[in-house]
């Protein structure tokens, strides 16, 4: 039998919503305190993005899966409208050709609460090493043959950071063939991706593979989501969105992006109209100030021509 909520149920739900909103603000406050205690990661991220903004042809590529991809779409739109070229690259599509969006000098912002999303890790790993070698070492030979029954290799990655090596295990799902390759990263030289493309991770787990593969990590961890029974992304997505906005707006200030620049990029809608009205008032005020200066000069110096002649 379908349960019909009573008035008490709606009252309880409203009270729960109030508590949840308080928890959101508490998580945002804790994040700001983490940045205040250790501002270097945030400063490093802004520094990388500033260089991208000032380098002709460079852009910001944001990647993620699921709700993180939705956050990435919003961040890309905010960055683009405030003077920094940015695109959203879905991690699944990236692994099937969209990695071609990335060029040396770009910056990748990888968004994942867990830092363990398989599609995202595959993309990050590909960015770090795909252009460091022209060989296909590490791929199952069966998969490269014409009679290949293996269409879906599963990539497992482990790292030995003390020795500076990376162990890859490629296990073909259908034939279970395994091939383990030890590859030491070659020395950095332009224009290889591993050196010239920086990766900024927005992640809630500092021990995750994503953070290990990234150049900068901004901690967006939360104590819990809204619901204790269904872990739908809520607190984590709200905090991540807030951090993305903080990055975008402060990058805008650093690059010298002005109200006039914003109006050029955003002439439509009520926001564009409000900017137009402000500009018109500003122009009228400038004309008024100029008129006052001319009249004052004429009064002080009777020998000059009338300002209205």
From TrEMBL:
This is Arabinose 5-phosphate isomerase KpsF. Signal peptide: none annotated. The keyword Isomerase applies. Keywords: Isomerase. Coiled coil: none annotated. The keyword Lipoprotein does not apply. Pfam families: SIS. It comes from Zancudomyces culisetae. InterPro entries: SIS_dom, SIS_dom_sf, SIS_Kpsf. GO terms for biological process: carbohydrate derivative metabolic process. Residues 49-257 form the SIS domain. The lineage of its organism: Eukaryota, Fungi, Fungi incertae sedis, Zoopagomycota, Kickxellomycotina. GO terms for molecular function: carbohydrate derivative binding; isomerase activity.
